[in-house]
Amino acid sequence: MEIISLCYPEQVPENNQEEIVCAIGFFDGVHKGHQKVIQTAQNLAKKQNRKSAVITFTPHPSVVLQGTKKTVSYLTPLPEKKNILADMGIDILYVITFNKALAQLTPSEFIDQFIIKLGIKHLVTGFDFTYGAKGIGNVNTLDKDGNGQFGVTIVDKLTENNEKISSTRIRKLIQLGEMTSVKELLGRPLFIRGHVISGAQRGRKIGYPTANIEVDSKYALPKTGVYAVTVKLDNRVIYGMANLGYNPTFEDDYKIKLEVHLFDFHEDIYGKELILEWQAFTRPEQKFDGIEQLIDQLKQDEQEIRHLFGQFEQ
């Protein structure tokens, strides 16, 4: 997949002679609804013997439009979005920087700069796509703003249990720890990628060694608690249980930590990169009166999560 970064007004596309079918949207999560839009563009590209493309944006428009200073978390930070789109077989990915100058373009100016000049001959969007200053351009104005220079396909909403699949809905489920439902809407588990860093090594002393994974604020995280997880490491999938929280039994620094105990695993993985997939929430984080109480609970957690995975202690 070819990746092309654009930033208005410094980097604007020259008139492209290639003929392209393109899906456009922010696509955070690349959930099943997004996949329907993107796959529609891919199918049209094959029929029309044209290249398939996706236009997405960075950062999230709220960072610019609302001037928020807080860190925005994503279901799929941009590097992960790139990986997913590449796996889907997209030919070209255009990443447009969302800045104040871009936000001030009129709908027709946006179409001229970023659709017509890119050589897009057919544009595919979701039913709720908006563009141009204050989002006044929408699916009903695309034909007018395009002036007949490209075709348009609007993809209707995709629903599950009679409710629209959306990034907002998925975020609410994540906050509730409903990871099975999140997986159904995304078409894959929510995940976080991070390196194993050094920790206090208390788990090793009580028979439950843990890998401490760096927590990047760019990733949307579920609520604190204990989770059944799968971990991808060096092309292997390992079952385990993770605690996301503040270690109330031992800690008092209020810094969120992610620790994972990998079942039947005894290798040194300090410094290695893991992909941790959130499979199921099992219980809230809690403070214990002592080490023995903690160990008893960890044994119960392990038994429950092994049963959930259909795994048995080796």
UniProtKB/TrEMBL annotation:
Limits of the Riboflavin kinase domain: 185-310
Enzyme nomenclature, EC number: 2.7.1.26, 2.7.7.2
Origin superkingdom: Bacteria
Pathway(s) where this gene product acts: Cofactor biosynthesis; FMN biosynthesis; FMN from riboflavin (ATP route): step 1/1; Cofactor biosynthesis; FAD biosynthesis; FAD from FMN: step 1/1
Swiss-Prot/TrEMBL GO biological process terms: FAD biosynthetic process; FMN biosynthetic process; riboflavin biosynthetic process
Annotated CDD domains: FAD_synthetase_N
Gene Ontology MF terms in the entry: ATP binding; FMN adenylyltransferase activity; riboflavin kinase activity
Top-level EC class as recorded in UniProt: transferase
Catalysed reactions listed for this entry: FMN + ATP + H(+) = FAD + diphosphate; riboflavin + ATP = FMN + ADP + H(+)
Keyword annotations from UniProtKB, A to Z: ATP-binding, FAD, Flavoprotein, FMN, Kinase, Multifunctional enzyme, Nucleotide-binding, Nucleotidyltransferase, Transferase
Pfam assignment, any one: FAD_syn
Described function: Catalyzes the phosphorylation of riboflavin to FMN followed by the adenylation of FMN to FAD.
Stated family: Belongs to the ribF family.
Protein name: Riboflavin biosynthesis protein
Taxonomic lineage of the native organism: Bacteria, Bacillati, Bacillota, Bacilli, Bacillales
